[in-house]
Specification:
The protein is α/β, with parallel strands linked by helices. Helices cover 28% and strands 25% of the residues. Strand 7 and strand 8 form a beta hairpin. It is elongated and about 75 Å long.
């Protein structure tokens, strides 16, 4: 008699999940995969998982591997194994009884193992630019989410937002900023409030590193550093972002224009960002580098270049402190080619978006080259 194979309901990972790889070589490296779900029959004693390459997949699939079955009386189960980086993959799971007979199985796809980033800051890190950009990869191996929109989706613009999880004091100040904007320009496909730099970043990363990319957004426009203090809702958003991804390569911080307008000093900005990072590491127990963009310039009807200096200096100082690294100097992107001007939203033009995205990819590429060099040096046996 043929054994009945029960269907498993896989809860995690969800479709379109990208997991952070923990090594970058050999090949594309590898990372941990945890599969959890329900429907495990009482007779299951062992669990296995594998990855199967989807069409056009990067990397090599992983053969059936013992996942060290965790099983509860109500049928919940979990498996853990190291798998090759790349994707998209289909993840297959099977549970076996004491005789080695498959008694349950399940599938989830697509899933990737690659590079995960938390994005935070204000409008230049959000979807406030001139043109909606798209992921150009044939398999769209770049995804995005936010604590407010937690379901992973392809990372075409506009990016997932945070519109409601905002402190009242910050919301009031944001409303004052928005009241000054000229909203008479047309909205639609090329709305100034719908484009971002992140598809350009992801497209470059996919070409350079050939692994899927995930972007977890915790950005809120028009926020100065004083609204990101530990205990604030914006800080809670950061904590939730990190906890949702579980692990990530780096936090990409692009913020400072509101502090220029507010008159924040260099020391105030440095102290606040150091405290913010320290609190996040303490709350999540995950310590990853923060890449800090030089981001202070915002074209308006007033001359603010002198006030930009204090925050620009702060961002340069932060780049040399423990736990921080330099991000791109997006302040260098000026003029009508790169900035849309006040009457068109005062953010990046389409050309500026592409340039800023490439600059971000360049800084992350440098980080990953250093990671690879470190791994290679540790792999060389001591003499």
């Amino acid at each position: 008699m043929t054994a009945v194979v029960e269907p498993l309901a896989i809860i995690t990972p969800r479709p379109l999940t990208v997991l952070q790889r923990t090594s970058v070589h050999p090949g594309l490296g590898s990372g941990p995969l945890r599969v959890a779900g329900t429907g495990a029959p009482a007779g299951a004693v062992r669990g296995e998982l594998c990855t199967v390459a989807c069409a056009e997949a990067y990397g090599e699939p992983t053969a059936w591997t013992d996942g060290g079955l965790e099983l509860s009386a109500d049928g919940h189960f979990a498996l853990n194994a190291a798998v090759g980086a790349g994707g998209w993959f289909q993840v297959q799971v099977r549970l076996l009884d004491a005789d080695g007979v498959v008694v349950a199985q399940g599938v989830v796809e697509p899933v990737g193992v690659g590079e995960v980033f938390v994005v935070a800051g204000q409008s230049y890190a959000a979807s406030c630019h001139e043109r909606r950009l798209v992921i150009e990869d044939v398999m769209a191996r770049a995804v995005a989410a936010s604590p407010e929109e937690p379901d992973w989706r392809y990372a075409h613009d506009p990016q997932p937002r945070i519109e409601h999880r905002i402190d009242l004091s910050a919301l009031t100040e944001i409303a004052e900023v928005l009241a000054e904007l000229d909203l008479s320009y047309p909205h639609g496909e090329h709305s100034p409030f719908e484009g971002s730099v992140w598809p350009a970043f992801a497209n470059a990363m996919l070409r350079l590193h050939r692994v899927p990319v995930a972007l977890m957004h915790a950005t809120v426009g028009a926020t100065r550093i004083g609204f990101w203090t530990p205990g604030s809702q914006l800080f809670t958003n950061l904590v939730d972002a990190v906890e949702q991804v579980g692990d990530y390569r780096a936090l990409l911080w692009q913020q400072g224009e509101s502090d220029v307008a507010h008159g924040t000093t260099t020391d105030e900005y440095v102290d606040a960002l150091v405290a913010l990072r320290s609190a996040l590491v303490e709350r999540t127990d995950i310590d990853r580098p923060w890449l800090v963009a030089r981001s202070t310039h915002h074209p308006t009807g007033e001359d603010r270049e002198e006030r930009e200096v204090a925050i620009n200096q702060a961002q340069q100082l932060l780049a040399g402190l423990p736990g921080f690294r330099p991000g791109p100097d997006t302040d260098s992107l000026r003029g009508s080619d790169h900035r849309a001007g006040w009457f068109r939203g005062a953010h990046f033009t389409a050309q500026g978006q592409q340039a800023a995205g490439l600059m971000w990819a360049g800084e992350v590429h440098t980080l990953l080259r250093e990671v690879a060099a470190q791994e290679q040096s540790e792999a060389v046996p001591a003499h």
